Amino acid sequence: MTMVGGMRGASVRSFSKDASVKDHKLRAGTARRVAGYGQPFVPDIVVYLVLTIVSGVLVTAVPLLLQRIIDDGVVPQVREVVIRLGLVVAAIAVVESVVTVFTRWFGSRIGEGLILNLRTEVFGHVLRQPIAFFTRSQTGALVSRLNSDVIGAQMAFTSILSGLVSNFVQMVLILAALLSMSWEITLLALMLLPVFLVPARFMGARLSALTRTQMSLNADMHTRMTERFNVAGALLVRLFGRPDQENREYADRARGVRDAGVSIAANRVVFMAGLGLVASLATALVYGMGGLMAVAGELSVGTLVAMAALLSRLYAPLTALSNVRVDIMTALVSFERIFEVLDLRPLVREAEEPRDIPSGPVGVSLQDVSFAYPAADEVSIASLEQRPEAETMDGHLVLHALDVDIPAGSMVALVGPSGAGKTTLTSLVSRLYDPTGGVVRVGGVDLREASMSSLRATVGVVTQEAHMFNDSIRANLLYARPSATEEEMWAVLRAARIEALVERLPDRLDTVVGDRGHRLSGGEKQRLAIARLLLKSPSVVVLDEATAHLDSESEKAVQRALDEALSGRTSIVIAHRLSTVRNADLILVMDRGSVVQRGTHGELLAAGGLYKTLHDTQFSR
Fold first, then answer.
1. CATH 3.30.428.10 describes domain 364-619
2. What's the Cα-to-Cα distance from 220 to each of 73, 216, 388, rounded to whole Å?
3. CA-CA 20 to 30 A from 180: which of 39, 162, 307, 421?
């Protein structure tokens, strides 16, 4: 192995890191917390380190055997020694290959196990965050925590751990062997070490800057592709976009990535060529000085060859160890970024001793309920936001001392101008948020004391934009109740007035609905969402503008499906079209976070006020 070849994997990998992390100040206790993630893998880590040490010893042993082959076998022409030691070298090669296989296997087992644990922990924790977390965070930055940062954290237990131990063992053994052979040549060789390290430091900073630029350009290019390649983005481009300009802008970004890549490759080639030159000069120096000593009888030929081989293996671990702090800090910073997410406590948490909401028809009540949206630092992380800044509504009450009682099996409609607080009220009923003041009860149980499983089983929601996963109709239905039978799925499709459509589809229940359900029309998607709700069979139904953007024909079909869905259930309906809530048992008129009127359709029209104004505006034609 040449000097350059030996250090290629160890050094170049370090130079691709951002060297600025070495000055980063970690939070107290980060290292101890990181060590805790290694607890499940302690037996594997011990075996892994033992194998790494054995590998380091074997790497050092081969040059020493070469010395004995030359001095004790080749020079005195003793064939038995050459054969015997040659077989030992061959045996070491076999053992080293076996050790390498097992080392890689244990390393993969530790690394992939750690990635699995971290990803599942972060994924589950993120899903428990309030909706405000997702409205503020960049999806790309959040996904990065589950991918690049998790993989970076994994390095702490595999690449860095094995590299640190292996390089240290090799360095100690090689230095000890070199000093025992010739301390003069060893010291002279070590004097060349700064010639390796100084360019490494300079080039490391240069490559880090170029790598950051390339990563930024790549992220920008990928963001643009993601926005244009989803259904909504592609539709917008087709309707309003300029294809030539889109191509030019994308090509500009792609050229930036190309130029950065060429610069990185060129700098690495120059650096490696320089190191190759220095390595060749060092080899020449060793052979020159050592050769003179061998001629003078102060050094054997075998020793000279062994020292040259050992020196070729010394610069790689020395250079790698000189960069180990940057590598370790890079891994720890990745852990710290993951801990940022894990340390963000969900605002809505299950009680230590939760209660189940009673089954069957249940009522809903809000007693003196007030609500203010949480501040940014309560629900989000600045590093996940594109432009972290306070929202105007944060900390300000959007609901004021609401008292609402909805008897079991009744239908209550919420009407009022945009921004009145209607959706916020229903978010409290489904416990997307907890009230700032007062109590929300379902079936007589304070939702802060209710078990999450019983709440999800009791309250069902159909939103204005019903979301569908890019999966089959079957999978989207079963998301509501995985244990449902095919007969039950067809029954709810029939009740939602969409059975005939599904039967006409080529794959019926196994038909994929496309990204966000875009292969279905708006009315079809809403009826499928209602079918999913019926399969869940909740006792309380929340409808948030479920027919707002539908044409008249689709609205009629969806409304018939809704009549089926609401039958016998407690329902809360948000509607701007007052014609859809005329038959409600109670209509609550909201404005600026308060209930300003309540009554039936006829009572509210007779009373005048905001409801009559809204009604007259809609039906003035």
1. no
2. 63, 6, 19
3. 162
